[in-house]
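Quick check before the chapter quiz. The format below is the same one you will see on the exam, so make sure you can read both the input and the output lines.
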Amino acid sequence: MTEIDFKWSWIYESVIHNPTVKEEFNYEEYEKFINSFLDRVKPIWKNKEKEILSYIEEITELKWKA
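Here is the expected output.
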């Protein structure tokens, strides 16, 4: 089964998120916040990944590409 790798994207931030931000934005603090969040979520996700992806395959009748 496919493994999902969570990453923070500077491109997403600059192209998608950044234009919607009205106030001054601290990238370093935001990156720390996001990476901290990902560090907390990854172990939880690893325990549920196969179950969740299998369920998605089941209800959509689609298969994940490796």
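If your answer matched, good. The helical segments are 10-17, 27-60.
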